[in-house]
Amino acid sequence: MTNKKTIMFDINNILRSNIKNLKPYSSARDEFQGEASVYLDANENAFGSPLHTSYNRYPDPMQYQVKMRLAEIKGVPPRNIFLGNGSDEAIDILFRSFCNPGVDNVILVPPTYGMYEVSANINDVETRKVNLTDDYQLNLEGIAEAIDKNTKIIFVCSPNNPTGNSINRDDIETLLANFQGLVVVDEAYINFSRQKTFIQELTEYANLVVLQTLSKAWGLAGLRVGMAFASEEIIEVMNRVKPPYNINEASQQLALEALQNTEQVNNWIKETLAERDKLVLQLKEFDFVVDIYPSDANFILVKTTDAKGIYTFLVNNGIIVRDRSKVELCEGSLRITVGTPQENTILINTLKNFK
């Protein structure tokens, strides 16, 4: 793959024909926008909800207020933002919009986030796997060899899950400049990274889709709000394919409230990074720790002499980590999320008793 030889990307070359002709469902809230005193258009319960807060009205199908606040934070217009029921919904919609079942393929770069493959399997789309290199970077030659005329999407997770490292920025730009399908950069952990977001490159690469989430640094995993940032034409396709009310009213209201508290989130990020560095130093003292890989995320991948034994020992002591020892290139490794100072202390003190 040569670098920076930007190809002409045309969305119509990769969009499924049935999606090109799709007439989306028109909801009551699509047909009327604005304020009224009497709503008798959507067959809602006019009396309210049996709750302290009323949720009897359908939510804004395009989540406009949340997108306006995100636009201020991210520095990108609302028309370039898609909101989904977690990033997983955005991933699924990309498959359903651009990949013909039983015909097309996507490229995955293991070890990586497992939902790409699950979503591919659900949508009957072939996955072509090109393992990361030994230092967990892209194998550009291998990717170039795997691409054919039916390759629609390349998924790159950066910072990567489960390895924690950021993927070389120049390598991602090489993919963007040379591949005629979509390059999806999943930045679920970008808030913890020293690398800058790829959102800033949206105007340069028409085939770029950036995924982010409110589940990690923002602490809203229970609300299920994921984001995709892309060109207006890609976002327009995703909005056509999504269910009309994919983000519920409670999630919209609470997300909007949380998005006012950037200072609190930034303080948590700083504390998490300090705790991560401390945790690495403490874990290195144990004889059963073989290696700890560099992390740009809120977790660390720890190579051990007995991953299964340590995992079982921790479970028996009420501590849950993730055993990644069966994942390619992660043999013998545990993925450990950085907890609060108290939780991290409990982890270290418990491990002192592991024989």
Automatic annotation (TrEMBL):
<protein>
    <recommendedName>
        <fullName>Histidinol-phosphate aminotransferase</fullName>
        <ecNumber>2.6.1.9</ecNumber>
    </recommendedName>
</protein>
<keyword id="KW-0368">Histidine biosynthesis</keyword>
<dbReference type="GO" id="GO:0030170">
    <property type="term" value="F:pyridoxal phosphate binding"/>
</dbReference>
<dbReference type="InterPro" id="IPR001917">
    <property type="entry name" value="Aminotrans_II_pyridoxalP_BS"/>
</dbReference>
<dbReference type="GO" id="GO:0004400">
    <property type="term" value="F:histidinol-phosphate transaminase activity"/>
</dbReference>
<feature type="domain" description="Aminotransferase class I/classII large">
    <location>
        <begin position="53"/>
        <end position="350"/>
    </location>
</feature>
<comment type="pathway">
    <text>Lipid metabolism.</text>
</comment>
<dbReference type="InterPro" id="IPR015424">
    <property type="entry name" value="PyrdxlP-dep_Trfase"/>
</dbReference>
<keyword id="KW-0663">Pyridoxal phosphate</keyword>
<comment type="pathway">
    <text>Amino-acid biosynthesis; L-histidine biosynthesis; L-histidine from 5-phospho-alpha-D-ribose 1-diphosphate: step 7/9.</text>
</comment>
<dbReference type="Pfam" id="PF00155">
    <property type="entry name" value="Aminotran_1_2"/>
</dbReference>
<keyword id="KW-0808">Transferase</keyword>
<feature type="modified residue" description="N6-(pyridoxal phosphate)lysine">
    <location>
        <position position="216"/>
    </location>
</feature>
<dbReference type="InterPro" id="IPR015422">
    <property type="entry name" value="PyrdxlP-dep_Trfase_small"/>
</dbReference>
<dbReference type="GO" id="GO:0000105">
    <property type="term" value="P:L-histidine biosynthetic process"/>
</dbReference>
<keyword id="KW-0032">Aminotransferase</keyword>
<comment type="subunit">
    <text>Homodimer.</text>
</comment>
<keyword id="KW-0028">Amino-acid biosynthesis</keyword>
<comment type="similarity">
    <text>Belongs to the class-II pyridoxal-phosphate-dependent aminotransferase family. Histidinol-phosphate aminotransferase subfamily.</text>
</comment>
<dbReference type="InterPro" id="IPR004839">
    <property type="entry name" value="Aminotransferase_I/II_large"/>
</dbReference>
<dbReference type="InterPro" id="IPR005861">
    <property type="entry name" value="HisP_aminotrans"/>
</dbReference>
<dbReference type="InterPro" id="IPR015421">
    <property type="entry name" value="PyrdxlP-dep_Trfase_major"/>
</dbReference>
